[in-house]
Structures are given as C-alpha cells and as structure tokens.
Prior knowledge:
Layout: H1 7-10, H2 22-37, H3 46-71, E1 80-82, E2 88-90, H4 92-110, H5 115-123
Antiparallel strand pairs: 1-2
Helix pairs in contact: 2-3, 3-4
Amino acid sequence: MRPEPQPEIAADVPEPPAFITGYAADEWWSAAPELYRLGLLTRIDVPALAAYCHAFGQWRMAAEALAKMQANDPIMNGMIIKTRYGDAATNPLVSIARKHAGDVIRYASEFGLTPVARTRLAAGGYVPPPPSKFEGLLR
C-alpha cells in the first residue's frame, strides 16, 4: 500500500524502477519520501534504494514463508526439514531470510536507516579546523 507523501515533495520523489513491486514497492513508498525530504535521495540514488527495497521484499517473503512453516511445526518451528532421504537438514528459508536481512541492514545503513548510521549522519561531514594563529608564517 503506497502511503501519500507530503504534497510539497510528492512530485519530486523519484519513482521506483518497474521491477520494484509488492513488499519492495511498499518499502520504497515508505522510505523514499522521507529520504528525499532529508536530502538523502536524489535520482542518482535510485539504484541503491532499489537494491535496499528489493532485499527488503525478499526478506519479508522468506520470513512470512518461514512463519507459515513454523505455525505447522510446533517442535522445530520450521528450522529443520526432512530431506527426501529422510535426513534432517536446515530449512533453506532460514538461510534465505538471514541473507536478505543482512542485505537489508547493509543497504539501510547507506541511507541512515539504522540507529548507528544515523549517528554517523548526525556527525556531519568533514569541517576543516579554524586556521591557527601561526598560519602563513612560513610562506
């Protein structure tokens, strides 16, 4: 569901690429207006935000599929599956969800979407120190 961005920035927020659909598109329209408002999203940032949103959508789908399996498996909570040979193995959805969660956090930090990343943004860019009283003496 696409939330309505604030009218003053709605027209300027870049549209997501066509392949950003479903949960990824929901995340785009959740994050993009705020990132744009903060000056952290320009048209050249679209691929990076698309990668974040795609990872988010993949993570959410894997997490929901795993949750459905967990509901039907009160003993192992879907973490272990039985192979076609009858052996126990780690459910591939666990690895898929973990991988995409890691991608989400990595991409999110690029846009200041994690608490630690926000502290780096709040620290600001490099500001040169004021000139020393001895500046220019040796020129």
